[in-house]
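Design job #97: recover the sequence.
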């Protein structure tokens, strides 16, 4: 067995590998860019080596530097994680040639299956059903349009070396195809250093279901059941679960056996994933094989009890699998939510900056030692750390394991309620809305679920609450507790002490700027019951028990005997004295005042926010790579204005109406801040 390994990656997957290595008694070497010098994976590893500047093409994608770091530190093996060089055939070969073990498949397997064009040809030869398409590299946008016409729209344009939603577009017409090919090719070149693009028929109303396989050097290959990854946004997985709520046992077995046959055809060693698109009649077609560990591997670990990273290390060390297909059992139901640094209310634009607060829910399962029926958090960040603009937006994975799907969904909703992130935006409200959706809870969904249900984007009204008055009552409860604390302060002027009122007015800010809804509150204590009160909102009563501290953002307790986890804090935009509360993805701003203060508040003038309609503002931090309009130019609605690159994705800013450009206020190559001015319109 190895005594030291190097992890050629960053973030949560680097931390994940370090945990398993530590459990196995193996020392670890981290590599890092200048942007990651204070990152968690650097702190956790036994040693760390600087690779270079922040851009991945100058650090995490430079094979020479990574191999040199392994030789320099005496690492006997390299684990590539996922992304970066994990499916790079040349890197795997060079690692082996340097006398270092590659903790992943052999280079010939990556060559055969890691390349999407080559893998489709091999699958056809092995008589595996594949989707109709064009499996040769497409050289131009014009050629792409011609090929698409032959296949028939809609088509999927995919980068051969792609993954994680990068370098992938769906086209429904010639215009989509022409523009999608160009963006797909650019993203592929920037993310993977390989701009080859191919095309295939897009199967409408599909499920995306993948089979986890595991092989050793003795020729044994097993399948570890499936994962349903159909909840996707722009082909980026959002929620994954195991097993699938859709397929039958017969389909599950057939898919598993076909995945094993495909892996054996290339003498596959290590963990890998065979991805299928599954029709509503449970017909399935081979999509691609990922010759690496998947982001969503934790849900498989939960239902099998296996540590897949440990298995990869043991296989790379030459050990045979210690179990057979018959030994594998499924237990319970697991769900994973990807927690991304993005703003769902601003079209999921990337959000970078400092994690002012980062308090994940309490983990009861560890990634390196899969337990059962609990909560697990795989992360690579800490409170106070920076989320840089150079890498992927995912900052954590939240995983739960329940005895059945209903329990797993309930556990996940509670865990999301307790996940505190401040300083940057996150997609937690969106995840909460998905889990609450009736079609998700029933298992009635496909890969078009998000596009169909949130076609106009994600808005606050898309997160309904079962009882929004609960949050109003909770705000009143907090305010009453704060008054109790203030009343206990010593040295108060006699006759002017803080009085503990029973009656309050709650002003809830609505979606329209400046509008508020008024609620009358009456709060009474239960004598002898610390942290308990009866809050009446109108004619509705809430008996709240909560012993969390007043400065805690995460609150736990019960309401009318039912447990809850919610978030609350003082201060909101333009309302520094109000409370902002969140529960089940729903958020409100509540100002709790005495009746007299509420009367005075009603007399206060409202100051409208400044008018920015004459400007194009940067909606995110990022690199301005292109300005498509110049002063004096008339641009029609829907035309491109500028392109900003952030977190390895191109973000195209379009005109929302016909405008004439008056002035260009930013330069190509400039790093933009949120709301920085780019263009001024006449």
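Job complete. Output follows.
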């Amino acid at each position: 067995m190895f005594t030291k390994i190097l992890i050629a990656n960053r973030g949560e997957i680097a931390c994940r590998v370090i945990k398993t290595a530590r459990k196995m008694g193996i020392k670890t070497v981290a590599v890092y860019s200048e942007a990651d010098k204070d990152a968690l994976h650097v702190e956790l590893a036994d040693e760390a080596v600087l690779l270079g500047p922040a851009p991945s093409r100058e650090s995490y994608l430079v094979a020479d530097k990574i191999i040199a770091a392994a030789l320099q530190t005496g690492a006997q093996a390299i684990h590539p994680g996922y992304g970066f060089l994990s499916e790079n055939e040349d890197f795997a070969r060079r690692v082996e040639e340097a006398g270092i073990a590659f903790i992943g498949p052999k280079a010939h397997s990556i060559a055969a299956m890691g390349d999407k064009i080559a893998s489709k040809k091999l699958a056809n030869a092995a008589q595996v059903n594949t989707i109709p398409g064009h499996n040769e590299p497409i050289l131009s946008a014009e050629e792409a349009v011609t090929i698409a016409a032959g296949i028939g729209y809609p088509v999927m344009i995919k980068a051969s070396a792609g993954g994680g939603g990068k370098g992938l577009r769906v086209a429904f017409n010639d215009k989509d195809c022409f523009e999608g090919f160009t963006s797909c090719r650019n993203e592929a070149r920037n993310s993977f250093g390989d701009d080859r693009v191919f095309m295939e028929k897009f199967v409408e109303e599909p499920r995306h279901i993948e089979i986890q396989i595991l092989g050793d050097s003795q020729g044994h290959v097993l399948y570890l059941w499936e994962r349903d990854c159909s909840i996707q946004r722009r082909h980026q997985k959002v929620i994954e679960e195991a097993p699938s709520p859709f397929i039958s046992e017969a389909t599950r077995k057939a898919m598993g056996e076909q995945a094993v046959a495909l892996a054996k055809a290339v003498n596959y060693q290590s963990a890998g994933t065979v991805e299928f698109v599954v029709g509503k009649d449970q017909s399935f077609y081979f999509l691609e094989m990922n010759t690496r560990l998947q982001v969503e591997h934790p849900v498989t670990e939960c239902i099998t009890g296996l540590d897949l990273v440990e298995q990869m290390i043991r296989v790379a060390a030459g050990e045979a699998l210690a179990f057979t297909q018959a030994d594998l059992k499924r237990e319970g139901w697991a769900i994973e939510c990807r927690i991304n640094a993005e703003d769902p209310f601003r079209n999921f634009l990337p959000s970078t900056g400092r994690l002012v607060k980062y308090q994940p829910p309490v983990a009861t399962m560890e990634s390196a030692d899969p337990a059962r029926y609990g909560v697990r958090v795989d992360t690579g960040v800490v409170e106070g750390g920076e989320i840089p603009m150079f890498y992927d937006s995912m900052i954590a994975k939240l995983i739960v394991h329940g005895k059945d799907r209903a329990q797993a969904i309930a556990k996940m909703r509670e865990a999301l309620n307790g996940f505190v992130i401040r300083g940057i935006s996150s997609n937690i409200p969106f995840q909460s809305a998905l889990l609450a959706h009736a079609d998700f809870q029933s298992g009635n969904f496909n890969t078009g679920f998000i596009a169909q249900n949130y076609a106009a984007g994600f808005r606050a009204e898309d997160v309904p609450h079962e009882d929004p008055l609960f949050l109003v009552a909770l705000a009143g409860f907090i305010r009453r507790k704060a008054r109790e604390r203030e009343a206990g302060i010593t040295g108060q002027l006699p006759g002017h002490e803080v009085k503990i009122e029973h009656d309050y007015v709650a002003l809830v800010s609505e979606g329209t700027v400046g509008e508020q809804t008024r609620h009358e509150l009456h709060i009474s204590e239960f004598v002898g019951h610390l942290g308990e009160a009866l809050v009446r909102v109108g004619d509705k009563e809430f008996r709240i028990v909560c012993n969390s501290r007043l400065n805690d953002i995460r609150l736990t307790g019960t309401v009318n005997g039912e447990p809850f986890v919610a978030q609350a804090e003082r201060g909101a935009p333009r309302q520094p004295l109000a409370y902002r509360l969140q529960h089940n993805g729903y958020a409100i701003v509540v100002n709790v005042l005495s009746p007299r203060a509420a009367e005075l508040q009603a007399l206060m003038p409202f100051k409208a926010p400044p008018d920015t309609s004459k400007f194009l503002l940067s909606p995110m931090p990022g690199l301005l790579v292109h300005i498509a309009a110049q002063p004096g130019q008339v641009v029609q609605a829907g035309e491109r204005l500028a392109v900003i690159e952030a977190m390895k994705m191109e973000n195209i800013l379009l005109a929302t109406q016909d405008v004439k450009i008056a002035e260009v206020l930013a330069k190509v190559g400039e790093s933009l801040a949120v709301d920085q001015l780019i263009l001024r319109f006449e």
